[in-house]
Amino acid sequence: MNLVSVRIITDDVARLVAFYERVTGVRASWATDDFAELRTTSGTLAIGSTRTLALFGAGVADPAANRSAIVEFIVDDVDEAFAAARARGGDDLEVVQEPTTMPWGNRSLLLRDPDGTLVNLFEPVTEAALEKFAATSR
What we know:
2,3-Dihydroxybiphenyl 1,2-Dioxygenase, domain 1, 3 helices
């Protein structure tokens, strides 16, 4: 088994896709107006409209209700990624925690997307963290 995708459900796909494109620098691939994917070398962030939920049944998910998951992206340089995200513009860049080196060895930037989901851009900086993520393409 292999985790390949995480999907976020939203009332405003275009707004959420624009945020993730700005933060990651990854261009989304649109299947329909209700569904887009940001594909990376190690996984995909899918963004779907609430209208897609009808395919799964009523009441299966609530948009903008996440308070427990963090979407994480490994980057080469957190400070550079932060500067690039700011330079790409947009007034929806809510910074929860500016770049900080965490006790487990990652330098981390914590943001909140327009729907309230936490987003962590991080880079391993200690020897142990670098070893842990050595096989992860960045």
